[in-house]
């Protein structure tokens, strides 16, 4: 596996930039409540609330760092290849129970699109780089799974 960050599409870049902007605004709001709480110690509930806000701030800082690094280091992805599964591909797979589903392979999940499989999901990672006829294996919380790439297209 390459140590270079994977390129991202313009749409994914825009979604990450929007998330980053939202997180920075939320972080500023949470940080201001921490500064205001220095006036009095308060009761245990106040202390627990303060601790929760501090934890939220650390979580947001970590995500902001991750997003900033991703946006700063990733190039822009070109169109997906026609012969192998990549970001932007539409792929039909057949599962071991005989069911067949078509998915769009994307970088980020926006909303609750059931036809989207992200590249950081077990199935998404397994599909990348494969072509029709290939069997892919992946691990889920329910155990090991496999699927066959039936067909490939672009969205």
Automatic annotation (TrEMBL):
**Record domain Transcription elongation factor GreA/GreB N-terminal: where:** 7-74
Domain of life (superkingdom): Bacteria
Q: Transcription elongation factor GreA/GreB C-terminal domain: from which residue to which, for each copy?
A: 82-151
Q: Its Gene Ontology molecular function terms?
A: translation elongation factor activity
Indicate yes or no for the key word rRNA-binding: no
Swiss-Prot/TrEMBL keywords: Elongation factor, Protein biosynthesis, Transcription, Transcription regulation
Region Disordered, residue ranges: 22-41
Q: What is this protein called?
A: GreA/GreB family elongation factor
Protein source organism: Streptomyces nigra
